[in-house]
Design brief:
- The chain is mainly α.
- 46% of the residues lie in helices and 3% in strands.
- The chain is globular, with a radius of gyration of 18 Å.
- It starts with 7 loop residues before the first helix and ends in a 15-residue tail after the last helix.
- The C terminus is likely disordered.
């Protein structure tokens, strides 16, 4: 659940990602659900220790979304993932425009580096589907003044995500300037060779 002072758009995102209905996901749900089958947040989760160790735990060297890779590994090894809607945890963000830039850049880099993990998974249209859902949500709430902001943020996030997906094409100096991540490993800001 978003904190009571969370922005309207942040509340929409959380209610979309964490719906009021519980469900169980298995490996054979991936084809139908697409990339959403791998949605998993380690903000409030628990994993059986033997399952966690059997699939290799969290991955090393990913820029963000290690929890998503963990979920993919669990499903690939025939474990089930349960989303329990009545387990309520408060968690929300107050992202500035620069915070959004870094977040969506990192997510783009993540998908460019881990594409093989999600090969054959439907990802196309998820951002557009989310953006249109957000507009419908604002319209239903009669929050029309938020619609321009929603459109601008969605376009901005899309462009930054696409930049992250193509980070390998950027000169090293530009990567250093853009990246918030200063760790070693396969990320936007690789160590000098």
């Amino acid at each position: 659940m978003p904190y009571p002072d969370a922005a309207l758009l942040e509340g929409f995102a959380l209610h979309t990602n964490y719906p009021p209905e519980s469900h169980i996901r298995r490996g054979d749900d991936v084809e139908e659900m697409g990339i959403i089958a791998f949605f998993f947040s380690d903000v409030a989760s628990t994993v059986q220790r033997d399952a966690f160790e059997n699939v290799g735990g969290f991955p090393d060297g990913v820029i963000v979304n290690g929890d998503m890779i963990l979920c993919a590994r669990l499903l690939e090894h025939a474990y089930s993932v349960v989303y329990q809607a009545n387990a309520v945890v408060y968690h929300s963000h107050k992202y500035s425009l620069m915070d959004q830039f870094w977040r969506y850049l990192d997510i783009g880099v993540f998908f460019s580096q881990t594409g093989q993990t999600f090969t054959g998974t439907k990802t196309e249209g998820r951002g557009l589907e989310f953006a249109l859902g957000q507009i419908r949500f604002l319209h239903r709430r009669r929050s029309w003044l938020w619609i321009p902001r929603s459109l601008l943020e969605s376009a901005f996030q899309y462009l930054v995500f696409q930049t992250g997906q193509r980070a390998d094409c950027l000169p090293l100096g530009v990567k250093r300037c853009l990246s918030r991540q200063k760790t070693t490993g396969p990320n936007l800001h690789p160590p000098d060779k």
